TrEMBL record, chain A:
Organism of this sequence: Hymenobacter gummosus
Protein family (similarity comment): Belongs to the xanthine dehydrogenase family.
Superkingdom of source: Bacteria
Keyword tags: 2Fe-2S, Iron, Iron-sulfur, Metal-binding, Molybdenum, Oxidoreductase
Keyword Iron-sulfur assigned: yes
The Aldehyde oxidase/xanthine dehydrogenase a/b hammerhead domain, residue ranges: 11-118
Co-factor(s): FAD; Mo-molybdopterin cytosine dinucleotide; Mo-molybdopterin; [2Fe-2S] cluster
Protein name: Xanthine dehydrogenase
Molecular function in Gene Ontology: 2 iron, 2 sulfur cluster binding; iron ion binding; oxidoreductase activity
UniProtKB/TrEMBL annotation, chain B:
Organism domain of life: Bacteria
Flavoprotein recorded as keyword: yes
Keyword Oxidoreductase: yes
Domain FAD-binding PCMH-type stretches: 184-373
One Gene Ontology term of the molecular function aspect: oxidoreductase activity
InterPro entries linked to this entry: 2Fe-2S-bd, 2Fe-2S-bd_dom_sf, 2Fe-2S_ferredoxin-like_sf, 2Fe-2S_ferredoxin-type, 2Fe2S_fd_BS, Ald_Oxase/xanthine_DH-like, Beta-grasp_dom_sf, CO_DH_flav_C
Keywords: FAD, Flavoprotein, Iron, Metal-binding, Oxidoreductase
Record SMART domains: CO_deh_flav_C (SM01092)
Domain 2Fe-2S ferredoxin-type: 1-86
Listed name of the protein: 2Fe-2S iron-sulfur cluster binding domain-containing protein
Gene3D superfamilies linked to this entry: 3.10.20.30, 3.30.465.10, [2Fe-2S]-binding domain, CO dehydrogenase flavoprotein, C-terminal domain
Amino acid sequence: MHNLDAAGHVRGESQYLDDIPTQRGTLHAAVYGSPLAHGVLDGLNLAAARRAPGVVRILTAEDIPGENQIGGIVPDEPLLAEGHVHFQGQPVALVLAETEAQARAAVKLIEADITPLPVITDPRVAAAQNELIVPPRTFRLGDPAAAWAECAHIIEGTAENGGQEHLYIETQGAYAYPTDGGGVRVHSSTQGPTAVQRHTARVLGLGMHKVEVDVVRLGGGFGGKEDQATTWGALAALAAHVLRKPVKLVLPRHDDLRMTGKRHPYSSDFRLGLSADLKLLAYEVTFYQNAGAAADLSPAVLERTLFHACNTYFVPNVRATAYSCRTNLPPNTAFRGFGGPQGMFVIESAIAQAAEQLGVPAYEIQRRNLLQDGQVFPYGQRVDDCNATQSWQTAEEKFGLEGWQREVDAFNAENHTRKRGLAVMPICFGISFTKTAMNQARALVHIYTDGSVGISTGAVEMGQGVNTKMIQVAARTLGISAKRVRIEATNTTRVANTSPSAASATADLNGKAVELACRELRARLMRHAADELKLEYEGLEIRDEQVLAAGKPAETDWEKLVSSAYWKRVSLTENAHYATPDLWFDQTQEKGHPFAYHVYGTALVQATVDVLRGTYDLDAVRLVHDFGQSFTPGIDRGQIEGGLVQGLGWMTMEELLYNEDGRLLSNALSTYKVPDIYSVPPVLDVEFLETPGHPNAILRAKAVGEPPLMYGLGAYFAIRNAVRAFRPAARPAFSAPITPEKVLLALHGPLLPQPPAPAAAAATVTAQ
Amino acid sequence: MLQFYLNDQLVRPTHRAGSTLLDYIRYQQHLTGTKIGCREGDCGACTVLVGELQPASGAVRYQTMTSCLTPLGNAHGRHIVTVEGLGRPDGGLTPVQQAIVAEGGTQCGFCTPGFVVSLTGHCLGGAATAEAARASIDGNICRCTGYKSLERAADQLTAQLLTRDAAPERLAWLMEQGYVPAYFRQMPGRLAELRRATLADVAARTGGQLPDPNAPAVTPPLTYLLGGGTDLLVQRADDVLAAEVQLLYGHQERCFIRAEADGRISLGAATTVEDLRSSELLLSRFPRLRRHLKLVSSTPIRNMATVAGNFVNASPIGDLTIFFLALDARLTLQNAAGQTRQLPLRELYRGYKQLNRQPDEQLVEISFQPPAEGEVFNFEKVSKRTHLDIASVNSAARLRVAEGIIREAHLSAGGVGSTPLYLRRTSEWLAGQPLSADTLREANALAQQEISPISDARGTEQYKRLLLRQLLYAHFLEHFPQQLTLQALL
């Protein structure tokens, strides 16, 4: 099954925000962002900009009729700066002009009078000054304090990861115009139409019923348009509402890069205790999350870091603490993996350091500690239907881990200017929004009298293929051809109060709602067929558009049945609601059952380092992934390949650089590099693990959006292993991305101080 | 009058010659398949085909270009093809489109038209090899697929193109198979007709005339000389839009690669990087040229970027500048009065982005002595991403070694100072030294004194110093692996 949107994509016919034909009189908007990262906003000089050619109006916080507030989790983020500025690029004013070029030119004429305040860019500095977005949180299991005494080896260290720019190729934007009755309609490139609707209503002082948000599709999202599309939607809506004119706001790439938040950088401290036979006994970790200047989704991202702090390993004694630190960077936000990858990077670093210090391959430690059914996650959920060992063993056998390692060792023994490294990266990722209430979805299904079907849900298509999946679900459930089914644009007036398309859960939640609605329609049509044709209801079904009674063709097909139902005044519309069963989480105890299920997999990654130049190639990634019962294998494989490559990019070349003034230095595609076609490994094998899937997954096909990104972490460790094959004394800092600069310095630069030798607990016998 | 074919349609835009082809396509013609991703030639979402009549063969040669950096004026007389201009009238898919769909090579779809256009350009003129197919999409960034599905699609096409090469006539085969629509057959004739009309009309071309040496110098203060646009439209798109521009791109008088009687090679200033890369003459003198120039930007940018543009842009890290500094290239500058003077490239730079050039002087020609028998040439570049990236440090070397003695050395280095550097002292010192690890270590010590790198987005000072050392070693290790080892150098 191909992605059903693909034909439109390759013909260039698929419509994105900037392709919507503009209405007569459309004004173009450009944003004036704060030139300083922190300060008191004493005033704005708009006179020159107002006189500039084509300028119609300049809006500031004073022009907001409702509340100047778009904070989602914490109300700490104004739409337009007021009183203070908190990061470079923070929207301060909106210029409306007749053309985009005029609006941009006028922005350059605006001056802000700002009294500078101290700028913080380092999360540890923020934490020391108690600049926290929310109070710290701690997940606990067992008694680590007591467990240290049992440990044969105790490893301590620090790990850091950089942020990551989403680099959706379609930048953020919105097109808004006034509607009849004082409302506003917003075409938005957002993963969260309801968030745009809710915040726009708040900003305009309107009821949500007067704000309609419509999304056809996104040119990429990856989390970057989950909450952060709101600013641009609300700004366009504000201007449209105030000026009573259509207004288009599409961010130029440079504005998008410097004004929007990214994946969170983290700096973390770890302490890992192992038994003599390499069992993980105790793990303490402290995460300092660089949240940026406002909460955005940071508290939720922080929570998922804690959920995934132990990755796919069982550790009986855990204390994981996380601080969400306020800095003067753009508010960091959701990005595929949502804090999970940051948590996993730390424990993988701890294991790598343990392996190096103990002189064993890291995979010996990884393999011995994989999760098993019946164990418990640090957040209290029982480990069930666990595929950690199955995926590891399958990968180990299919790809010959031991033999592969021997080949790498042999290569390294023979070659002096090129060195290879191999790493294994197993993953475990929980599926569900960790905020339990968000795990609900609705579907509105219309069967038209000609038998065609229109479906509306809260799902936003952004390349993940959710529309194709939902069409499949509807076609299978109704027994009709996929050609009859269309997924409508996501629109807040058809399906309300939606959760964003995020958390890998979009197909599960919305697909289940589609399935429920279609089942009800099917049952209704079968009852009608039974009445009309005097057939037994039991045993009636529709297959390939033919109505079957006890397996034999009946005297009606889909088209006739639908038409006949209409004439008998049977409703051909259904609206279904789905809520994932059995989810709960008690934040006071930090325990519960937050996930519908978990996804597992294991990747092997090989890298080769050019010792002379410090450059490297990723040679191969071979992985076994737990798809459950995939019904769209082409799409699902695409998610694995794409997610993996994003993870490889994050670990290698994607380097976000801010200077101490909070200015983004990697502020263009010429300085922020994402993988190109030559960067991806020549070998990329994806094996489907044989599993029954999970009943909470749509048609037992497990969610596939976020998990593969974390296979990319393997690249960091493979490259690091290759560096150490050349220079065994090198202990490169656990600092991602591992750029060619870091590699070259690790190969030939000054040696970093050695970490202390593993501390054995004093005078204790190792626990077996 | 500015006129060109946009797909099947003759258009005569009245917009400014320095405005972008992209904006014209999207906002004047509402051909929205051509997408805006970055407006700096780094993503390829706006890729179009630019077809140019080849006077010699009478055929149209199609190249990919990023329309965000293509000055509208550069479309003059050419055939511009967008994704809409490739579509089959029956609504079916072309083989390129089918391959992408079949392999799952599109997810969000936003970058997809760029890939379709690039691969179609490859099918029109590229070699039927996997390597060439991949190279055709090396300027297209996809953030969704991870490229493997696109590689599989490209491989499908490579298999099909073997049939193309066996066909009696390529274009006929491509049209029969539906790669391009039937109107492509008429394009050579249409462009020839445009050319005739244009020759009569060249002076009236919007801002596009070459300077007349006999005309008085009336250079308006805000005139930009635009070559391929690959730098000016990144740095100063708004200014260029507002200014009068002079277009240089594609002028036959400025596009040539020629062997001179004295053994030197001359290049026209508007020669593109791809022209260099596909020159048999240069390949015969620089056996590693294709590999070296593959490190320079991407296919569409190489199709646009000119040699002179790389020099006068004065970036301390310009790849071609570094390449030609080691070759001691000589420049011919021409002023508005038509007078010319010669200047060594090594004397062009006075300071950061400052040129030893009068405002009315244009760089018209470059000439250099290619490596002779017994000489070797090497180019090294390290960047965060190996391809389509700007170097952290780059360096070139021209070396003559005989009987274990370095007879002559010319080393250049970029990214380690405020201008592209010729490492004069290091080069002079090396001449006469034995080829040994000690010599190279001493050369590095000298080179470190000649450079003054700063920390920036491309690396810290510490890294750039270390990297320069490594690249200096690399020049010798590449060419003299029998005499030197990395272990001995470290």
